[in-house]
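Provenance and format

Records in this collection were gathered into a single text stream. Each protein contributes a sequence line and a token line. The two records reproduced below are adjacent in the stream.
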Amino acid sequence: MNEVHVLVTQPFPDHLVDRLRAVSTLLQIHVQPARSAEELPADLLPEAEVLYTLRALPEPEAVPNLRWIQFHNAGIDHVVDHPLVRSGISITTLSGAAASQMAEYALMAMLALSRRVPAALRDKAQKKWAQDRFERFRPVDLHGSTVGLVGYGSIGREIARITRGFGANILATKRNLKDLADEGYQSNGLGDPRGDLPERIYPPQALRSMASLCDFLIICTPLTPETRGAVNQAVLEAMKPTAFLIDISRGGVVDHGALVEALSQNRLAGAALDVFPVEPLPEGSPLWELPNVILTPHVAGSSPRYFEQAVELFAQNLRRYLSDQPLLNRFDPARGY
């Protein structure tokens, strides 16, 4: 087999680059950080067979030998219309690499909302000891609660594993109910490989029915034409007024107009939002002022180990590529993920 030239546009530290080079002596790893197509090294593009990138994509004619793009993130809705992505070459994502920190964020949000942390922080700022504290801070216990997962991929499965440990009951929606196994990337010991943890798995069309049963509704599905606006007014109206919504998916899955209305009218107990239809969240958004909302700037997947997690997955896929095995996390344009 000939040498395989791999162009990496993320600034991986040397010890992680060495880990990639250790996969095979056939690999020629070129690390050239680039944030856009204009910053890509023109002299390396013609021989590149593999491209690892966040969003820096050349035009197809600039990379005649390119066979595979590994993206540095799980969601690639920002580049799905690029000619390279639509060209028929292999496309893989980082789905599953950040599942552990995404699940920890969801758990943090569940506990913070259910234990009324936003109210406690407001009281602290006012140096106020609530006289009605037992009523004001009445919790929703995670033990015995019902957690609904909108999407049962790697993130949803890890949330299920963690919350089952707290004694929660798990429901989920899944696009393909004929195969419950997780065929994507998952770190050892994490998730729910066989799909055993939920008490019931619903088709996406039954989301409203599932949502009506949940104390926590966690959005962790990819943004596709089918999921855009899926958590709409009808779904929100079906939820209990004591329930919480947590969104760690992509901005666009939740109808924010309907969500703001539900939260403002106390038809939902609260929400934790890490993603938004427009990012950064505009200063004029009413979400900033709502007292029952936790807002974070799209950081649920952040971790000091993210590069290490990314390289672990990429190295596995490089081994598969060199041995002509199916790549993990193949992007399917027809599905949108």
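Adjacent record:
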Amino acid sequence: MSITFPHAVRQWTLEPQVQMGGVRPDFVLRSSQHNLPAIAIFTDGWRFHAVPANNTIADDAQKRRMLRAAGTMVLSITWADLERDANLAQGKAVSAAPPAWYDAQVISALMQQSADFGADHVEAITKGPLDFLLGWIQAPDLAGHEALGNRVPWLFAKDGAKLALDPDQDLAQAAAHLLLDTQPPALPARAATTSWWWRSGHVGVLTRARQLGAATSLESIAVLDDRPDHLGDGHRSAWEEWLRLGNVLGIRTQPTEVVALSELISGTVPLAGEVTEPGVPGLSTAWQEVVDGAASDAERRVLQGLAAIGRVPVPQLGFETPEGSPIDIAWPDLRVAADLDLDEPTRQELLDLGWTMVTAEVDALVAALAGPAGDKAGTEAHKEG
């Protein structure tokens, strides 16, 4: 499906069953404006994802984590979301009830503190994923949604249990112990950080506040109990809430994770998110320098996704063509360039020089850098984009 508006500066494509690395979302929404991330859309049915006979919760969490790490936005849509919008379309009175953890007064206070998100962004919480999609297609504002997402954990503070966590304590494992109602292992006494734990039945959100200079970074993890003996009709609302939390918390630049309890029981899930303190653990010096040198959030997301892959050569930032045109992200030796809104003269110059231009998405760039076959796949991905 192609979506356009009169006098629009961008076009949209909605494709079903698109392979993105090792994940195949139900739909992928892309814009012709390449600095906008793709949106992987999952239409999740409860009986096919979250019942004892079909329990894919942990697998779903892992796949969506992979997509987010690669710079793709993830949106989950349930039958309840579709049913509500269908009823609204038919003129039936359906209350657009925001989640129980939503607090208009807290949101108002946060908006007064900062003007980088507004009422349109808040509707992503109060109305649901289909309204978010419609608003995104009409006026995509990633920075505004990220700004709201970074502040969403404050909504859980009012009704959450106040905790004093060690700054070095594994947040994921602490969340697992809280959901299991068990005692976490004792740690050496250190300066405790302000934290809070919000829970609704089988789902919970743990947040730890860190002071970074004048700013506060909120590390958050949302966890759902996916043990087979805990699934059933009473679990469905928790599963739907977990998906909604993933939609909202998934659009953040601060450390965030959306996980299944079984993942935490079997092993530690690292907390992912934008680096707010020196360096990304595990990155080489070369990759760290490139990520630090990103000129925009869109560029940084692509570079972080490529760095996480681990098998991609380090690119050159700001490479200049013989005609003096700057290329934001390029691999001159391989003649591959990431297309972050290149102008037409620059595109033509690169084509004349035998370069491959690839839409600035992690999976397309990985394919293009893999070799001759990958070059063709990357070129096709650019054409489709």
